Amino acid sequence: METARFESMNERQELILKALVEEYIRTAEPVSSKILVEHYDLDVSSATVRNDLAELEAAGFIRQPHTSAGRVPTEGGYQEYLRKLAPQKVNSDRTTSRKLREAITDSPDPEETMRALTKELVRLSGDMAIAAFGPDRSFFTGMGTLMAKPDFQDLDVVRSMSQMLDRFDEVVEGVFAQLAEEPQVMLGHDNPFGKDTAAVVVKFRLPNGRIGLLGLVGPMRMDYPKNLSLIEEVIDILKE
Three-state SS for 187? Predict the structure, then answer.
C-alpha cells in the first residue's frame, strides 16, 4: 500500500505518529488527540495535535474509523514507524532470557528443541510462532492465542488467515528462499502470511550446518521492537 509522500513531516509530527502507533499497539483502541496530549510529553495543545493528525491522515499514515473520534495507523503508518521511528533495539530482560533457555530440552533432536522454543515464544509475545527446517518441514503454534486478539474478530481477517494456514507449507517455502540471516519484518500487502498481519522472520544456521526458519506472526499492531528482540535472543541461543 502506497502512502502520499510527506516531505515536510516535522519533528513534532514524527513524535505524534510514533506516540499514536505505540499507544495503539498497547491498547488496540483508536487514539484521540486528548490521549496524546495527556499521556505523552508533546508540550502542545490538543488543537495543534488535531491539526497534525489531520495532516498525517491526509498523507495516508493514519485513518479514522467511522465509529470513533480517534485514529489508528494505516499500513503506511506502520511502515514509516518501522523505517524511522521505532526503537532500534529492546534488550531482553534476564527473566525472558532464562525462560527461553529453560525451554530448550535435553533432546538431541533440533526439531524438538525448536518446538519447545516456539511454544515459549508464543507465551512471551502473545503472537503465533512459526518454524521450519529447510523449505519442506514446517509447523506453527499459538493460533488460539492469535485468534483471541481483538484484531482477529473480523471474519474476513480470520478467513484470510485460515486460507493461508491451509497452504502454510507452500507459503513457508516461498519465504525461505528470500530470507537473509538477520531478522526481517514483513508487513501487510508485502507479508505472505496475510495482508492483515505482520511477521518477524529470520533464517538461521545451527552449529551443525542445518538451516532453518523462525518467526512470529501477529496483527500489524504487534510490538515490533519486542518481537525483534525475542527472535534475536532465540537465534543467539541456537548458535551456542
Answer: strand
- HSE (side-chain half, CA atoms, 13 Å) at 148: 8
Please, where are the H alpha helices in 104-184?
Answer: 110-125, 143-147, 155-166, 168-178
Residues 233 and 202: their CA atoms lie apart, in Å, by 12
- On whether the pTM is more than 0.85, the answer is yes
Residue 214's nearest CA partner among 138, 125, 123 is 138
Can you point out the beta strands (E) in the chain?
62-63, 72-73, 128-133, 138-141, 184-187, 197-205, 211-219
Sequence-distant (≥ 6) Cβ neighbours of residue 232 within 8 angstroms: 183
Contact 24, 219 (CB under 8 A): no
Cα separation, 128 vs 28, whole angstroms:
18
Q: Which residue has the higher pLDDT, 42 or 73?
A: 73
User: Do residues 100 and 240 lie in contact, with contact meaning Cβ atoms separated by under 8 Å?
Assistant: no
Residue 216: what residue type? L
Closest to 223 (Cα-Cα) out of 106, 86, 62, 108 = 86
Percent of the chain residues past pLDDT 90, beyond the cut: 66
Are residues 24 and 16 in contact, defined by beta-carbon separation less than 8 angstroms? no
